[in-house]
């Protein structure tokens, strides 16, 4: 019972009260276990007076599409937002603009997102939930390759990312900005300092 209770817990939603932005943050698989780390996106948002919301989507162990409705609600509350997706959250963000377009989204910033899937999940073809979408060549990963306005997507990948792969391997055809950052998957995911300069430029419309 206690284990089941813990497993169902997720991050609390964080509303950002600043007057710049706005941003809509989307965490990664099991991101709710630790929630939104204070030294990450929360700290950056407070220091830079950003408005918007960091979504609380539970542990995010379900299929990618199951989170699109909540993202759509948030975009409706914060039109013109920058979607900031961490790890699996980046796939949710890109899947969102594939379905709904960029009408109410300024741009998308993904950090350490596994566009090519996570290689070891090939060994678990029976997997369900998020694992099914995160496996290489999944239907979701194939579908987001068709996203329009890929020039409005900025991808930050780690040089030594053990899950998401390296920057030159991103399977997202078309013109997009790919930034090769130092560190591995969890370093990028847990320490937003690698991504703060990029987000600052997006806020200025560069």
Describe the structure.
- The chain is α/β, with parallel strands linked by helices and 206 residues long.
- It is 33% helix and 19% strand.
- The protein is built from eight helices and seven strands; from the N terminus they run αββαβαβαβααββαα.
- The longest helix has 13 residues, at 88-100.
- The protein is globular.
- Mean pLDDT is 82; it is low at 1-8.
Range of strand content: 15-25%
Helical residue percent? 25-40%
Rg, Å, rounded: 16 Å
User: Kindly state the mean pLDDT as a whole number?
Assistant: 82
Distance, first to last CA? 50 Å
The secondary-structure class comes to alpha/beta
The count of strands amounts to 7
**Any idea what the shape is?**
globular
Widest β-sheet, arrangement of strands: 1-3-2-4-5-6-7
What is the helix/strand order?
HEEHEHEHEHHEEHH
How does the major sheet shape up? 7 strands, mixed
Total DSSP helices: 8
* Contiguous runs where pLDDT drops below 50 for at least 5 residues: 1-8
């Amino acid at each position: 019972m206690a284990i089941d209770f813990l497993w169902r817990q997720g991050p609390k939603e964080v509303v950002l009260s600043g007057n710049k932005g706005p941003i809509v943050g989307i965490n990664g698989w099991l991101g709710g276990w630790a929630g939104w780390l204070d030294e990450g996106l929360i700290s950056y948002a407070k220091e830079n007076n950003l408005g918007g919301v960091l979504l609380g989507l539970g542990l995010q162990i379900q299929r990618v599409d199951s989170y699109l409705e909540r993202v759509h609600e948030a975009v409706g509350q914060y039109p013109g937002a920058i979607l900031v997706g961490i790890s699996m959250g980046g796939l949710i963000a890109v899947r969102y603009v594939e379905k709904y377009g960029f009408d109410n989204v300024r741009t998308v910033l993904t950090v350490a997102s596994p566009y090519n899937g996570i290689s070891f999940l090939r060994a678990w073809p029976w997997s369900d939930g998020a694992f099914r979408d995160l496996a290489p060549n999944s239907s979701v990963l194939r579908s987001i390759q068709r996203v329009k306005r890929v020039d409005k997507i900025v991808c930050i990948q780690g040089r030594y990312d053990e899950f998401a792969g390296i920057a030159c391997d991103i399977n997202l055809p078309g013109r997009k900005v790919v930034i090769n950052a130092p560190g591995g998957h969890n370093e990028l995911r847990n320490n937003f300092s690698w991504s703060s300069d990029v987000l600052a430029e997006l806020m200025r419309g560069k």
